[in-house]
Amino acid sequence: MLNSNSVDKSARSNYLSFMLAGEEYGVGILRVREIIEHRPITRVPGMPAAVQGVINLRGSVVPVVDLAVKFGLPPRPITRWTCFVIVEVTLDGQQTAIGLLTDAVSEVLKLGPEDIEVPPAFGTRVRLDFLLGMGRHDDKFIMLLDLDRLLSVSELLSLMSATSEEAPTAEADVVPAEEVATESAPDEAAGNG
């Protein structure tokens, strides 16, 4: 006969937790390939703001996603604790490495089903469909990210379309030079009279 404690322990999973804009997030440790120091990012033209660019990881091209920007926050300053959490996701049927830009890595947590709560319907910076749940650890909660949804092909493509839709509105705010000249002409005339 199985002891309920042995069942709970076998069901426990490890999560890597990291900080981002003062909040703690976690991803399943089995999805984490490695953690590396911040290094220069090569910008790629036409990429959405949340995709910072790419890094060279031992000869492989790895795209870097700034989770802060993806969650609608301003870009975070780079500090000595800033690092990339390299995770593996399945894109178009193949395993792909993606770097997550984080403020700092915290720790590895062991959480069982009893430690994971359903996320609240409001009050988080992250869309609910991007969360697996809220992991309870000590006296705090960690937002557990669903990497398959957060970094899916459709989600990355929606970032691309959002960027292309923003470009025309930015151009609409530009005032043509002729209008600036006409608006300033009366002031110049008044100054000359």
Any chance you could write out the topology, listing elements then pairs?
Elements: H1 4-11, E1 13-20, E2 23-28, E3 32-37, E4 51-57, E5 60-66, H2 67-70, E6 83-91, E7 94-102, E8 104-111, E9 116-117, E10 131-137, E11 140-145, H3 147-150, H4 153-172, H5 177-192
Parallel strand pairs: 2-11, 5-7
Antiparallel strand pairs: 1-2, 1-8, 3-6, 4-5, 6-7, 9-10, 10-11
What are the main properties of this structure?
11 strands; 193 residues; disordered N terminus; alpha+beta; globular; single chain
Characterization of the model:
The relative contact order is 0.17. The termini are far apart. A hairpin with a 2-residue loop joins strand 4 and strand 5 (60-66). It is globular, with a radius of gyration of 23 Å. Helix content is 27%, strand content 39%. With 193 residues, it is of the alpha+beta class. The protein has a six-stranded mixed β-sheet with strand order 8-1-2-11-10-9, with no helix packed on it.
Q: What's the short version?
A:
The chain contains five helices and eleven strands. The protein has helices at residues 4-11, 67-70, 147-150, 153-172, 177-192, and strands at residues 13-20, 23-28, 32-37, 51-57, 60-66, 83-91, 94-102, 104-111, 116-117, 131-137, 140-145.
Q: Between the first and last Cα atoms, what is the distance in angstroms?
A: 101 Å
- Outline, from the CA principal axes? globular
The radius of gyration computed from the alpha-carbon positions, rounded to a whole number of angstroms, is 23 Å
The helical percent reads 25-40%
Task: Please trace the helix and strand order, writing H or E for each element.
Answer: HEEEEEHEEEEEEHHH
Spatial order of the strands forming the largest sheet: 8-1-2-11-10-9
Query: How much β-strand is present in the residues?
Result: 35-45%
Oligomer: single chain
The tally of strands reads 11
Tally of helical runs: 5
SS-based structural class?
Answer: alpha+beta
Largest sheet: 6 strands, mixed
Poorly predicted ranges? 1-8, 163-193
Compute the average pLDDT. 79
